[in-house]
Write the structure tokens for this entry.
Amino acid sequence: MNPDLKFDVQADTEPDMKPDEKADAQPDEKPDVVTGNGEPLGAGGFRETALRVLRLMFGESRGSRWAGFCVLVSIPVILYPYRVGPRLASIAGCVALGCTAFLQLKRRLVYIALVILTLFVSIGLNGAQVLLREATETPEVAIPVISVSVVPGGDFFHTRITPERCMQAAVCFYKDGVAVVAAHSCELSPGVLDNHTLLNDVHVEGRVNVIEDNSWGFAVSPLYPPVDREEMPLGNAHEVAVGEPAQCLPPDSEPFDVEIAGWAMREDRQYIVLVSPRRITEGMSGTPVLQGGRIIGFLAAKWAFPSRAPYIAYASPAAAVYDAFRDHLGGR
């Protein structure tokens, strides 16, 4: 064989084409969208980016990513309980806290803190709306029916229980030398009150005795209103007009208007639910609530987490308070 003999093998077996024809023959291709580091960002790119974010937030395992995703989904449900219902919001909070168990310790602590913070924010922002939705038009338990008139209170009552402890509240009403105060228990024992007892910042002369302290307030005697006032009838449950305005007579300021939102049970007690434009502060317990020329209740509690108006307060029904001390009020 002749070593000088060479064969030219043509690599391109396609027929010769003009440059314009080659350009036309090539398929149309869309340029890839690229990220900042030059990697293509198509459908797969978005998926990879999302997974990267989930790994960064919740960890590497699939279980931790799903758990973190459930936590994030639960947060808006917790924030809007009045839209989805308080029961579903409570379930979402429990699910979110349970899902944190699948996260690593550091992430777990962060997300537990996030869920708890969300719960407190939700309570502060939406608690009033949830409570108002639960109010009913009529009481759920029977309330005594009475027919009696008393002198309305609204006076500031202050006494020292121990050398280290004082209490202050409003007088609910006066009847025959007996004053009923606070509309809730103050844990006072029967006996003589401290000598530094004040009524509207004026020292009470003589010995004032605690007759009884129960869950509806406490009764003291002898104690009379500081100024002449006309008696007013106490209102019964069926005389409370839900959805209508009423008036509070606080000891520390001028009377202010509230709205009767309905009735609610709290700790096995029936209360009248009030919507107030102003905050209910310490020392206002026992404040009379008037409606239609009658005393329908006495402030006894408030919603503990108000972050904005409306402010929710609870009033003990006047008939129930009077009935609790009937034996000390002439038995009438």
Notes: The domain at 234-328 is CATH 2.40.10.10 (Thrombin, subunit H).
